[in-house]
Amino acid sequence: MAAPAVGGIGIANLPNQRHKIVAKRGAHFTIMVVGESGLGKTTLINTLFSTELSSSKNYSRRHVKQLDKLTEVEIIKAELEEKSFKVKLTVIDTPGFGDYVNNRDSWSPIIDFIDDQHETYMRQEQQPQRGEKTDLRVHACLYFIRATGHTLKPLDIEIMKRLGTRVNLIPVIAKADTLTQGDLANFKQRIRAVIAAQNIRIYQPPIDPEDTQSAEHARLLADAMPFSIIGSTEDVQTADGRTVKGRQYLWGVAEVENENHCDFRKLRSLVIRTHMLDLISTTEESHYENYRQAQMETRKFGEPKVKKLDNPKFKEEEEGLRRRFTEQVKAEEARFRQWEQHLIAERDRLNKDLELAHSAVKQLEAELDNLQVGYGRGSQRR
Ligand SMILES: Nc1nc2c(ncn2[C@@H]2O[C@H](COP(=O)(O)OP(=O)(O)O)[C@@H](O)[C@H]2O)c(=O)[nH]1
Ligand SMILES: [Mg+2]
């Protein structure tokens, strides 16, 4: 049986939003995924593409930027087109940070990357000829939270605080299928509370008082944050015979596009269908503008970003110090790496155990449900 025809992908609605950006030429949209490794960042991106692009012909991946020797980002470009409205989509897929015990160094390249894009754009704006600019300013940053069922980790709080003042931050709960619906709802509430208590700035879909329908939609999206996510590009069969994108378990199928299973549709709606232009204009008018003003206050017009080690007088002395320091650090580092490897292995093992335990709980719950249904029938027969 043929799948029911799906309507357009929805981006043709974008120009109807009340926005300053004239969308005739189409939009440039850059989205970034951030979070510990193994949380399903790459899978979510592929899921977005597999539900959003009919073919992968306009879809290219390349490694562009080596941030440092441990962290590099992958830049994926795609073109979405509907009713002659085009979106040039760039996805920045980062590897996980938090793999390194030395945490600060693992996330600072990500913050630097975001600042660097603002810097690059600003410098181009200051040039006499302001033609086509390279623009990789991040319009939406998805931050992946591990579905532990407990609360946000101190590292999550640190990073989210820094991201929230720089970009439109959209927190998501990764691998929602590893928690029961009840645990997931509690977890979400707890995270919302921490976000509020810690003053973490997250993206707020604007509420238009003159347009009740879109205001209602925006409220629905805001209330669902942080979005719970199930990622999968696999087609699986549900018990009632539907073929869906999802993850197959002994207890059933976790469906990507089922609103009762996760908030994938809401997230997709927010970033691709209804709020893309707002994400772009708030980046331009708020985040980029903040960066520009902060920079203007600390340096003269046209002057490059201040480098710390530019004074020639101290250069030689510094070099000597640095050499000795480097030797010491190298010795310590070797010892440290070994310890780190051990911790990573241990963490991965514990996370696997946790996932298995969650899955076992769900299986037992399903069996219990079945037993109760069976028992119900049994007692009626008597
Ligand atoms: N249970 C579950 N597993 C997922 C989900 N998304 C991805 N995974 C799995 O998690 C592992 C890591 O995924 P990946 O996308 O490479 O994570 P990344 O390191 O954050 O890019 C893979 O085995 C995926 O199949 C999800 O929503 N639920
Ligand atoms: Mg990845």
Protein described:
The protein has 382 residues and is an alpha/beta fold. It folds into two domains: 288 residues, 3-Layer(aba) Sandwich (Rossmann fold), CATH 3.40.50.300; 73 residues. It is built from eight helices and ten strands. Helix 6 crosses helix 7. The radius of gyration is 24 Å and the shape is globular. The N terminus is likely disordered. The site of magnesium ion has 3 residues, from helix 1.
Kindly list the characteristics that best describe this protein:
binds magnesium ion; Rossmann fold; disordered N terminus; alpha/beta; 16% strand; 10 strands; globular; single chain; 47% helix
Question: Brief description of this entry?
Answer:
With 382 residues, this protein is α/β, with parallel strands linked by helices. Helices cover 47% and strands 16% of the residues.
Fraction of helical residues: 40-55%
Question: In what range is the share of β-strand residues?
Answer: 15-25%
What is the level 1 CATH name of the largest domain?
Answer: Alpha Beta
The CATH homology group name of the largest domain: P-loop containing nucleotide triphosphate hydrolases
Question: Helix and strand succession?
Answer: EHEEEHEHEHHEEEEHHH
| Quaternary structure annotation | single chain
The largest sheet is: 7 strands, mixed
Q: What is the spatial order of strands in the main beta sheet? A: 2-3-4-1-5-6-7
Low-confidence segments, given as residue ranges, are 1-7, 15-23, 54-58, 61-70
